[in-house]
Amino acid sequence: MRYLALLASLAMTTAFALPAHAGGQYWSLKEHNTDDTMTWHNSENHSLDLDSTAGKGVVVVKIEPSDAHGLQAGDVILAVNGHAVRHVIDLINQANANEHGTATLELQRGHDSKQIVIAGSDLYALIHPHP
Predict the structure, then answer these.
(1) What is the pLDDT of residue 2?
(2) Helix 88-97 / helix 120-127 crossing angle, nearest 10 deg
(3) What are phi and psi of 82, to 5 degrees?
(4) Could you tell me where the beta strands, DSSP code E, fall in the chain?
């Protein structure tokens, strides 16, 4: 019985550790154990790297392709539809809440303030990538 439990545990661990394959694509989603970072990439060199450890907004560390949905590396997302975004978890919550509408992102780009309006489904897909 212990052998079966160990085998089942190993099978589950292996299943969750393997990347998802869809249509020949390799997808890798790496989520950190904090509410302040998110990184993902796929085989087509699309990727997103977010960081909010400073607690003053969500920094777009890397986004590929560059300028996807109007976002650029170095942008700091401060709010979505008027709701403050201090941490990555706040951005995830806003992406979930606005999946079926539009999302107005208030951000800091260099020394300039900027607003970007994107479909809520695009923000959701950016935060929750899938094959």
Answers:
(1) 46
(2) 140
(3) 85, -5
(4) 20-22, 25-31, 37-42, 47-51, 58-64, 76-80, 83-84, 102-109, 112-119
What's the number of CA atoms in the CB half-sphere (13 Å) around residue 80? 26
Q: Assign residue 35 a region: left if phi > 0, alpha if psi is -120 to 50, beta otherwise?
A: alpha
Residue 28 CA to residue 39 CA, distance in Å, equals 9
Closest among 108, 28, 61, 90 to 123, alpha carbons compared: 90
Is this structure's pTM higher than 0.85?
no
Identify whether the C-beta of residue 94 lies closer than 8 Å to the C-beta of residue 85: yes
Q: Which two tokens stand for residue 7?
A: 């085998």
Residue 1 lies in a domain: no
CATH at 47: 2.30.42.60
| Domain count of the fold of the chain | 1
pLDDT along the chain (131 residues), means of 10: 43 41 52 74 84 94 88 96 96 93 96 96 88 62
Exposed/middle/buried for residue 112 (C-beta within 10 Å: 0-12, 13-18, 19+): exposed
